[in-house]
């Protein structure tokens, strides 16, 4: 009986689901889970940055049955499923968990309280910019005295343009360290904002038009938000928010201990049955 994760990911989607699944995989690492991503690079990234031991590429969630065995266990974070598919998953697997039912999933083993962040202000657009919207906005803007954290799927060679407009360009491989060490971070990723809060830092979310967000969670947290506009206007508003940052409220990382207990119990029962 094998534990699998499936995270929707890719160059037009980003890595938020991969980061959430990796956090849960850390909790279940003693069970040697396998992370399935819809882009092979996402799995390699998770192994390098988040210590995910095993990963495999599965282009879409409906193809999971090609590598899984009946009675395996599945945890998924994707919007690809429908009621019929979920019924099929429940019939095929011994346990199925939809991680989208949990609002805040953060790996507290790597995102820890930092009382002395050494980066004042950082911008992280996200891991994806397939249409190069951010790049074009940067090209049409002035210079900014702040750090830019590169996205995983940014096109090779774009660093030279970013270096002309930002005082410091940080490589994607330093993602975890940068989130831990940025006192204020402007980001188009809600997952990144949650990781920043877990470190005791102060994120500001700017809504990207092509993304959907958990608006209820944003409101509950009192997370400051900037609507999409020109980069210069966005950063000016960001600076203003930093000067009078609001209090984050109701931040509570989801308790996943019951999931681990259920999975462990199921595997132990299956082991006794097959050995008997």
Report what the structure shows.
The structure is a single chain. 36% of the residues lie in helices and 20% in strands. With 276 residues, it is α/β, with parallel strands linked by helices. It has 2 domains: 3-101 and 255-275, Rossmann fold (3-Layer(aba) Sandwich); 119-243, Rossmann fold, CATH 3.40.50. Strand 6, helix 4 (133-139) and strand 7 form a beta-alpha-beta unit. It starts with a strand and ends with a helix.
CATH topology of the largest domain: Rossmann fold
Cα gyration radius (Å): 20 Å
Q: What series of H and E elements makes up the topology?
A: EHEHEEHEEHEHEHEHEHEHH
The end-to-end span amounts to: 15 Å
The number of distinct helices, counting runs of at least 4 residues, comes to 10
Low-confidence stretches: none
Task: Count the domains.
Answer: 2
Structural class: alpha/beta
- Estimate percent helicity: 25-40%
Task: Describe the largest sheet.
Answer: 6 strands, parallel
Q: CATH superfamily name of the largest domain? A: Glycogen Phosphorylase B
Mean pLDDT: 94
Question: How does CATH name the architecture of the largest domain?
Answer: 3-Layer(aba) Sandwich
């Amino acid at each position: 009986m094998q534990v699998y994760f499936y995270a929707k990911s890719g160059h037009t989607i980003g890595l938020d689901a991969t980061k959430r699944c990796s956090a849960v995989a850390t909790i279940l690492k003693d069970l040697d889970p396998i992370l399935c991503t819809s882009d092979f690079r996402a799995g390699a990234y998770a192994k390098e940055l988040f210590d995910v031991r095993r990963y495999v590429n599965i282009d879409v969630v409906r193809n999971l049955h090609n590598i899984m065995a009946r009675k395996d266990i599945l945890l998924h974070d994707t919007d690809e499923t429908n009621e019929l598919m979920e019924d099929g998953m429940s019939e095929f697997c011994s346990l199925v968990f939809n991680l989208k039912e949990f609002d805040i999933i953060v790996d507290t083993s790597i995102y820890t309280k930092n009382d002395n962040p050494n980066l004042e202000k950082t911008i992280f657009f996200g891991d994806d910019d397939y249409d190069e919207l951010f790049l074009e906005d940067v090209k049409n803007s002035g210079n900014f005295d702040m750090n830019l954290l590169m996205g995983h799927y940014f096109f090779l060679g774009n660093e030279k343009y970013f270096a002309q407009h930002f005082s410091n360009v940080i490589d994607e491989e330093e993602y975890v360290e940068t989130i831990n060490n940025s006192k204020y971070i402007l980001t188009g990723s809600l997952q990144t904002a949650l990781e920043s809060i877990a470190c005791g830092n102060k994120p500001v979310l700017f809504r990207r038009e092509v993304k959907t967000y958990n608006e209820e969670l944003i409101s509950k947290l009192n997370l400051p938000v900037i609507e999409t506009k020109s980069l210069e206007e966005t950063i000016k508003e960001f600076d203003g928010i930093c000067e009078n940052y609001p209090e984050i409220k109701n931040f509570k990382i989801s308790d996943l201990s019951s999931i681990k207990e259920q999975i462990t119990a199921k595997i132990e029962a299956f082991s006794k049955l097959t050995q008997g």
